[in-house]
Amino acid sequence: MARKKFYVVWVGSEPGIYSSWDEAKARIQGYPGAKYKSYEDLADARAAFQAGHAASLQSGGSSGKGKRLVVKPRIGKDIPLPAWSVDAACSGVPGPMEYRGVDLATGDELFHQGPYPDGTNNIGEFLALVHALAQLHRRGDHQTVVYTDSRTALAWVRRKKAKTTLQKTHRNSILFDLIDRAEKWLATHEPRNKVLKWETERWGEIPADFGRK
After folding, report:
1. pLDDT (tens digit, 9 = 90+) per residue, 118-173?
2. In the chain, which residues have pLDDT < 50?
3. DSSP bridge partners of 141
4. pLDDT at 56
């Protein structure tokens, strides 16, 4: 039996704590800049809701009996600023996919794209990473570090090629257009921002995580 989870919605149509994903989803779907996260313990969820979304980015995921202690990084010290994190979420393989970027200093959502039909998590992670690099390039910001928890996305960006096995269909053709644009951007630009692996095993979920695991 799957372990019960509690869903904190800080920013949505009705902020609060919900005991099912369907309830929480109804409060955030289509809501601009929605902020939410899942917890395995009701007490943790209540504390996170009271503390606010920005505090939750530094406290990380939920805790529970029998779980390994995760050493949370101190944003600004263990994770020097300025820094962004990116992540993707996909319901099924393939399934509806979306991705976003979060500023580690403020907890603000920097961009949020999707959901797109019939995508994969790897594609979302790749697009999120290129999106962040392109946005920083346009700003002339070459100092901000970008974190991703996807080794696959890191490899694809370094190779400047998304090695997906997903088949193109009329439903997901927009994703392949986005992949093509991302690959062309990488081929014509040399990103100067550092891109680093977020150490999930040490630090918990990446701050841009959608909280649906």
Report:
1. 999 999 999 999 999 999 999 999 999 999 999 999 999 999 999 999 999 999 99
2. 1, 60-70
3. none
4. 66
- Please report, as a single letter, which amino acid is at residue 139: R
Give the number of other Cβ atoms within 10 Å of residue 44's Cβ.
18
- Spatial neighbors of 205 by CB under 8 A, at least 6 apart, are 60, 61, 149, 211, 213
Q: How much is the pLDDT for 62?
A: 40
Other residues' Cβ atoms within 10 Å of the Cβ of residue 114:
20
DSSP the chain: -PPP-EEEEEESSS-EEESSHHHHHHHHTT-TT-EEEEESSHHHHHHHHHH-HHHHHHH-S---TTPPP-----BTTTBPSSEEEEEEEESSSSEEEEEEEEETTT--EEEEEEEEEEE-HHHHHHHHHHHHHHHHHHHT--S-EEEES-HHHHHHHHHTS----PPP-SSSHHHHHHHHHHHHHHHH----S-EEE--HHHH-S-TT--S--
What CA–CA distance (Å, rounded) separates 97 from 154? 18
Q: Amino acid letter at 197?
A: K
Which residues are registered as beta bridge partners of 83? 145
CA separation for the pair 157, 160 (Å, rounded): 5
- For 111, half-sphere exposure in the C-beta direction (CA atoms, 13 angstrom radius) is 20
